[in-house]
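Q: What structure does this chain adopt?
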Amino acid sequence: MARKDTDMKKSVLAVIVGMLAVSGCSLIPDYQRPDAPVENAWPHGQAYDALTVNRDQQAADIGWRDFYRDPALQRLIQLSLDNNRDLRQAALNVRLYQAQYRVQRAELFPDIAVSGTGSRTRTPADLSTAAAIQQILNPQAGSPGGSIGSQYSVTLGFTSYELDLFGRLRSLSEQALLNYFATSEGRRSTQISLVSEVANAYYAWLTDQRMLQLTRETLAAYQRSYDLTRQTVENGVASGLDLRQSRTALEGARANLAQYTRQVAQDRNALALLLGTSIPTDLPQGKGLDGNDLLADLPANLPSDLLQKRPDILQAELQLRAANANIGAARAAFFPRISLTAQGGTASRDLDGLFKGGSGYWTFSPSINIPIFTAGSLKASLDAAKIQKDINVATYEKSIQTAFREVADALAAKGTYDDQLKAQQDLVQASQEYYDLANLRYRQGIDNYLTVLDAQRSLYSAQQQLITDRLNQLNSGVTLYKALGGGWLEHSQTRPPLAAKP
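A:
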């Protein structure tokens, strides 16, 4: 009898090993990366005449401390990386998807557990089979009493372990892994966006401070002009119309003063929100807006380099691959599922007899579930998985097109803002000369005050536009750095590889 039990155990073990050997087949379609729906060269035209492509250096490998050279901005960026809540949430999402992948991967292995049970049960006489037989055999014995029974057991084994013969669980595990990798790239994308947002907010704050300073200077000039005009009116030299015209410019400057005062305060609040903390009072001395070395020069790479450097594109492709893996799971659902339950242990009526000879027992219970009629749900699930993949293909292609457009726009800005700033500086100089001459001619009684007022407004407008153009130039540099995938590294170095399996 013992020999038969041993042979039976060997047979069961052979069946399990054989099933595990054939498991692991995958029905995931072969993945083919979609062709990039953009040209492998940047646009041509007058805006790109000065563009040169550098194949040796990658902009994404330039650390943000090396690109942003303003010490105050460097301090603010570091504060945002330490305290920003969006970035913190993105990091937690990575950990969440990592945990979900580990949960899904655990489905590939049986859950082995050991359990111990014990029970004592009193059975009434009228429910006891032994008592009933005794009553039948010996009716004169009287009514028997109830019986008390005991049972103890210790069991080791697993239940409902699915043999992954057709790769359903492996496909789901692959999908979870790719989603985890995609979330990791999403965190990098969040950091890159945060770094650029802090830089843009900082430059906007400096710009509005400069606008506020310019408005105060202009208001003081308008006030002096108004006071002088009022004196000439009182002396009968100028007319009341000149005084009214001078006052319109004065009140307009006062309105602008209130506007820029408000914008400076709002810029500070926006920057504090990005930092996730208050702006420190001990910021290093910044370089302002006029420095020529605020941003490092960036090499222009080929459009194909974006596919390896832009985390949002990498995230979209990983999500596409995850959708492709889900098709394998949907395909495997059409095939039978085989589950195993195997347990072994020791059982006895007495607690001290649990580990005595002859108390051992084992069970082996395979089961199979073959889908025959599902009202089309399996086919619909497969169709949905394929459609989801097509959606992810479109998303992936759109992310490439968006990246191409962002880089192309930033390159066009890079090639034209130098000329625009030079022209605007010449316009400010010309407007200053126009105002000085118009004011002199008015004081000499040659021209009316309307000419002076026009010259004042032209000068003020030209000065404002020069500051705005400088902000736009800086923003375009920030955008180009972000569009090329820069902002993930702190210092220039080789970009770290894709996250390894946890």
